[in-house]
Hints:
The complex is a heterodimer.
Chain A: E1 2-3, H1 8-15, E2 21-24, H2 30-33, E3 40-43, E4 50-54, E5 59-63, H3 68-77, E6 80-81, H4 95-101, H5 108-111, H6 114-117, E7 118-124, E8 130-134, H7 146-150, E9 159-166, E10 168-169, E11 173-181, H8 184-195, E12 201-208, E13 213-221, H9 226-237, E14 241-243, H10 245-256, E15 266-271, H11 277-286, E16 290-294, E17 299-304, H12 308-317, E18 321-326, E19 333-335, H13 340-350
Parallel strand pairs in A: 1-3, 2-3
Antiparallel strand pairs in A: 4-5, 5-9, 6-10, 7-8, 7-9, 11-13, 11-14, 12-13, 15-17, 15-18, 16-17, 18-19
Chain B: H1 3-13, E1 19-20, H2 23-26, E2 43-46, H3 50-63, E3 67-70, E4 87-90, E5 97-101, E6 106-110, H4 115-122, E7 127-128, H5 141-146, H6 154-157, E8 164-170, E9 176-180, H7 191-195, E10 204-211, E11 213-214, E12 218-226, H8 229-241, E13 248-253, H9 254-264, E14 274-282, H10 284-300, E15 305-308, H11 312-323, H12 325-328, E16 335-338, H13 348-362, E17 366-370, E18 379-383, H14 390-407, H15 426-429, H16 432-445
Parallel strand pairs in B: 2-4, 3-4
Antiparallel strand pairs in B: 1-2, 5-6, 6-10, 7-11, 8-9, 8-10, 12-14, 12-15, 13-14, 13-17, 16-18, 17-18
Helix pairs in contact in B: 1-3, 8-13, 13-14
Amino acid sequence: xxxxxxxxxxxxxxxxxxxxxxxxxxxxxxxxxxxxxxxxxxxxxxxxxxxxxxxxxxxxxxxxxxxxxxxxxxxxxxxxxxxxxxxxxxxxxxxxxxxxxxxxxxxxxxxxxxxxxxxxxxxxxxxxxxxxxxxxxxxxxxxxxxxxxxxxxxxxxxxxxxxxxxxxxxxxxxxxxxxxxxxxxxxxxxxxxxxxxxxxxxxxxxxxxxxxxxxxxxxxxxxxxxxxxxxxxxxxxxxxxxxxxxxxxxxxxxxxxxxxxxxxxxxxxxxxxxxxxxxxxxxxxxxxxxxxxxxxxxxxxxxxxxxxxxxxxxxxxxxxxxxxxxxxxxxxxxxxxxxxxxxxxxxxxxxxxxxxxxx
Amino acid sequence: xxxxxxxxxxxxxxxxxxxxxxxxxxxxxxxxxxxxxxxxxxxxxxxxxxxxxxxxxxxxxxxxxxxxxxxxxxxxxxxxxxxxxxxxxxxxxxxxxxxxxxxxxxxxxxxxxxxxxxxxxxxxxxxxxxxxxxxxxxxxxxxxxxxxxxxxxxxxxxxxxxxxxxxxxxxxxxxxxxxxxxxxxxxxxxxxxxxxxxxxxxxxxxxxxxxxxxxxxxxxxxxxxxxxxxxxxxxxxxxxxxxxxxxxxxxxxxxxxxxxxxxxxxxxxxxxxxxxxxxxxxxxxxxxxxxxxxxxxxxxxxxxxxxxxxxxxxxxxxxxxxxxxxxxxxxxxxxxxxxxxxxxxxxxxxxxxxxxxxxxxxxxxxxxxxxxxxxxxxxxxxxxxxxxxxxxxxxxxxxxxxxxxxxxxxxxxxxxxxxxxxxxxxxxxxxxxxxxxxxxxxxxxxxxxxxxxxxxxxxxx
Lengths: 359, 461
C-alpha cells in the first residue's frame, strides 16, 4: 500500500494507523526506497516546496519532499549553493532523501558534507507527533542534535518533514586538473601531497580506469586567480591538463550522477580512509567492479557486478561499512555496523514498536 | 545510592594523592567558569588512564552514585558544576596524543588534551585543528565536545561537531562503545553528531578522532573602528552580501574595547563605539583578491579608522584582545554573566538596540563582544555580587536577552550550551514534545541519571 499525504497534519494522522512504515522521497536511490514486504510506503513527494529562504541569511527551510533540482535553481538565482554537491539531483533526489541516506558528493572535500550544512529538522515520530530539533540559524548548541542523528538514519527514526540548511556563496569560477598515473599507488601518493597542501580545493578524486589511474583536483574562487593557481597545482603534482568552462562543470555534474556506473551494477557507498584504499581496490579489481575514490579517498563509490552478499563479506573482512544506493534489488547497509548498541538504544527511545522500518 | 561503598572501591583504584575527599581538596572543583553556581562534590578523582575512567564509571553505576566529568572547568553555562551527592572525574591528566596521522589529516587524542595543544602538535606538518573557542589555551577537547564549542571561526569552519570523526565513549552504565570512524564519511545514523553537544548526559568521551586542516597559507586581518555599534553591524551585512566568506567576523562595543585594552593593550582605538574585526584566510591568491573586495566594502562603510595586520605578530595581537575580552571584563566589574544567544544576522542591529534598552531599563551595564558573522551575541552582564539584588537583576536581564533571541528566530545558545544556567529556557525554544523525545533518548542511555545529572533538561524533567 502506498499513501501520499498532502500535508504534515495528514501524515501525522495516518502514522499510527499502520504497523510498518517506510518513507520514499524522489525514488532516486532505488535499493533504499524499494517497498519491503508488508509495509506501507509513505510517498513524500507532495510535501514539497520552500518554506523560507532568506538569501541575506544564507539559510533556507524547505519541506522534505522538495527536489534538490528546485532548491539548487533557487539558490543559484542568488549566487548561492549547497557546497557538498548532493548526488543524483537530476534523478529527482529530494532534500529529505539526501539527509536520510546521508549522501554528499565531491564538493564535500572543501567545507563538509550534508551533516555539516543541516541546521535543523522537523520529523514525525512513531506516535505521529511533530518533533523539532536544531534551529534555523547558522549556529546553535541548544538541546540534543537530533538533526545530525537523522543524517544516514534511513527513515528508521521517523519521517522527515522539514529541513533547514545553511548555504554558501557560489565561487566565481572553478577549474580542474586531470593527471594520469600508471597505477593507483602513485596516484594516491600525489593525492596526499595535494590534500595536505594549503590549497582551497573543492574536490579531490582518484579514478582507477582500465589502463591508467586519474587524479582529479578541483579549485574554485575568483575567476582571475584560477589559471595561476592551476599552474601551481600542476607543479605540485608534476603533470596534468586543465579542464575549464562548461566541460569542467559537466564533468563534475556527471560524477554526481554516477554516469560511469553501469545501470545493471549495484552502486555502493563505502566510507574509508586513504590507508585502506589499496587493500579494498585489490578486491574490487579482482571482481571487475568499477570504482571512484572520492573526497580525498574518504569515500569509495563502488559499482559492483556480482552478488551483494559477496561484497558484504569483503567489507566485513576489511572492517568497512557500505550503503547500497543504486541498482535493481532492494538493499541497504553492508559490512560492519558501527555503534550498534548505542543506535539500538536510540531506536528503543524513538520507536519502541519498530513502526518505522529500518531498511 | 551508596557513597561509602563507592569510596572503598575508589581507594583500591586510586592512590591517595589522586582521590580527593577533604573539603580543602575538593574546594577548587566547586564551580566552573560560571562562578555564581557552586556545589561541593563528595570526592574528586584525578584519572590518568582510560581504564581508570571506565572503572570509575562502572563503580559509580554499581553503587548508584552520580558523576560529573570535568576538564579545565571553563564552561560558561555551568556545564561541569558538580553534583553534591556525587563525585567529579577530573580528566586533565587523561591528555595523551594517541596518534597523529598527517597524511590522513587526523589526530586521535584523549579527552583531557587541551584544544590549542592539538594544533601545536599538528603544526610541524602545517596542519591545525580549526575550532578555536576563546578558552582554547586551557579548555580540553572533552569539554569542547560535550558542549559543542564554537569560536571565532565558525562562519567558515563551523563548530566542534563538524570536526569530530570518531569517538570512544564510556556510557553511564560502563559499556564502552565506538562511534564513527576515521573517515569523513559514514553509513548509518550519525551517532557522533548526536553525542557531540549532549552536555555529558550520554557518558564520557575517552578518545576522540579529530579532523585536521591544512593551515591557511595567508591571512588578512582588518580592524575597522566606527562611531556607532550599528555602523559596525551594518558593515557585516555588506561584507556577507558581497559574497565573501571570511574566516571570522567579530564586533566589540566600547565597554568591551576598554576592558580588552586595559588587560592586554591590543592597540584598539579606545574611543570606538563599534569595532569590527574581519579575517580572510586561505590560499594566498584567493585571499589577496578577496581582500580587495573586502576593503571596497569596508571603505564604503565609512569607518573613522582602519588598520590591517602587518604580520603574524600583529594579527595575534588583534586576536589576543578579542579572545581575552571575557576575562578582561573582570577589570570592569567583580562579577558578570555572559549569554551567547543567536539571532539571524539581519536582525543583529535590532537585537543590540534592544539589549542596550534593557541595560538602561535595569540599570545594569552590558558589554558586547560577538561573533557577528554568525549572529552569535555575547552580552556580558556586569554586576557586583555583594550588592543586594544585583545578581537577580543581572539574571532577569539575561533571561530577557534569551527570550529576545528566540523571538527573533534564533537560539538561546550558539556555543556555550544549556548547562545549569539556561535549563529553564530550553522550553522557550522547544515544545513539550520536542523535550519529551530528547528525554526519552536520555532515559535509554542513562536511566538512573548518573552522568552529569541535572544539566540541560529543565528542572522536574
